[in-house]
Design goal:
Layout lengths: L15 E3 L10 E6 L10 H14 L7 E5 L3 H13 L2 E7 L4 H9 L3 E5 L4 H14 L4 E2 L7 H17 L6 E5 L4 H13 L4 E7 L27 E5 L1 H15 L5 H16 L4 E6 L14
Parallel strand pairs: 2-10, 3-4, 3-6, 4-5, 7-8, 7-10, 8-9
Antiparallel strand pairs: 1-2
Helix pairs in contact: 1-2, 1-5, 2-3, 5-6, 7-8
C-alpha cells in the first residue's frame, strides 16, 4: 500500500508563478506565491496548524479543549479547518462587517462565530476574545503575540521561496496584518542573504483593505519587529482593489484585495528596478470576496 497523507500534510508547498502580462517589457522577474492553494484557501493555514501543533507539544492544550481567536477572516478559517482536523472546539470573534463568505465558511467547519460591532474593528474583536477567555470558556492562541505564527513562515514559506528561486530572490513584498508572514519570511531570507530587501505594505489613512492593517500602538502585534522590514509602503483601497481586478482579468489569478495591495507595491518596484527577482504573497483566493462587490 502507498503511504497516504492526511489533509494537514498538504499545507504549504504552494506554487510560485511568474506573471506574464502585468510586469510589461522588463528585465525583472515578478513572482507570486499562491497561498490560496492551501487546503483552507489562504496563507493563514500555516500559522493555524503551527499554533495548535506547538501548543499541543508544550502540553498547553489537548484534543477536546475549546480554543478562542479574534480574527478578520483568514486565520479564523485556517483555525476552523485545523481545529476540526485535530479535535478541538473553536470560538471565533470577528467584526460584523466581515464578508459573508468568510463567516459562512467558518461556520461550515463547525466553528462558533461571534460578531462584534463593525465600528470597533479588530480591537473590538480582540477585547471580546480576551473577555471570553477571562470567563474560562477557552484558551486564546493569540496569533498577534504567539511566536508560533511567524515560526510557521520561517519553517516553511521562507524556505520554499528560497528553494523555488534557487536563492535568486532579491525583493520580498508582503501585506501586513498580524505581520506573521513578513516576520518569519524576512528572518529566513535574510539569514540566507542579508541583501534581500523586505517590503511591508500597509493601508493609506482611511482605506479599509481586508487583511492589511496599520495598528494603533496599543494593539500592535507583539510579534512585529519593524527592524526586520527594509521599507514600508502605503497603498490605497482603490489601488489594491483595481490591481486585484487586473490580476484576475489579465493574469487569470483570482485573489483578494490584500493580494492586490501587495502586488501594487511589487509593480512599483518593477518599474524602478532592473534584473530583480521580486516575490509577492497572494494571501488568499478572490472567491472569498464576491459578495463585497470587488469584482462587480
Amino acid at each position: 500500500m502507498p503511504e497516504f497523507k492526511y489533509l494537514q500534510d498538504f499545507v504549504g508547498n504552494t506554487p510560485l508563478v511568474r506573471l506574464k502580462h502585468l510586469p510589461g517589457n522588463t528585465s525583472n522577474v515578478l513572482l507570486l506565491k499562491l497561498e490560496g492553494n492551501n487546503p483552507g484557501g489562504s496563507v493563514k493555514d500555516r500559522p493555524a496548524l503551527s499554533m495548535i501543533r506547538h501548543a499541543e507539544a508544550r502540553g498547553d492544550i489537548r484534543p477536546g479543549d475549546t480554543l478562542i481567536e479574534p480574527t478578520s477572516g483568514n486565520t479564523g478559517i485556517g483555525l476552523a479547518m485545523a481545529a476540526t482536523m485535530m479535535g478541538y472546539r473553536l470560538i471565533l470573534v470577528m467584526p460584523e462587517n466581515s464578508s459573508v463568505e468568510r463567516v459562512q465558511t467558518m461556520r461550515a467547519y463547525g466553528a462558533d462565530v461571534r460578531l462584534t460591532p463593525a465600528a470597533l474593528s479588530m480591537p473590538g474583536a480582540i477585547d471580546e476574545a480576551r473577555r471570553l477567555e477571562q470567563t474560562g470558556v477557552g484558551r486564546i492562541l493569540d496569533q498577534f503575540a504567539n511566536p508560533d505564527n511567524p515560526q510557521a513562515h520561517y519553517d516553511s514559506t521562507g524556505p520554499e521561496i528560497w528553494r523555488d528561486t534557487a536563492g535568486a530572490v532579491t525583493h520580498f513584498v508582503s501585506s501586513m496584518g498580524t505581520t506573521g508572514t513578513i516576520m518569519g519570511v524576512s528572518r529566513y531570507l535574510k539569514a540566507q542573504n542579508p541583501a534581500v530587501s523586505v517590503i511591508g505594505v500597509q493601508p493609506e489613512p482611511g482605506s479599509q483593505i481586508p487583511g492589511i492593517r496599520k495598528w494603533e500602538d496599543a494593539y500592535l502585534p507583539k510579534i512585529c519587529d519593524y527592524a526586520r522590514i527594509d521599507d514600508l509602503q502605503l497603498v490605497s483601497q482603490a489601488e489594491a482593489e483595481a490591481v486585484a481586478r487586473r490580476l484576475a482579468c489579465e493574469e487569470g489569478i483570482l485573489a483578494g484585495p490584500s493580494s492586490g495591495g501587495a502586488l501594487a507595491v511589487a509593480l512599483r518596484l518593477n518599474a524602478t528596478l532592473e534584473n530583480a527577482v521580486i516575490v509577492s504573497i497572494v494571501c488568499d483566493r478572490g472567491d472569498r470576496y464576491l459578495s463585497t462587490g470587488l469584482f462587480a
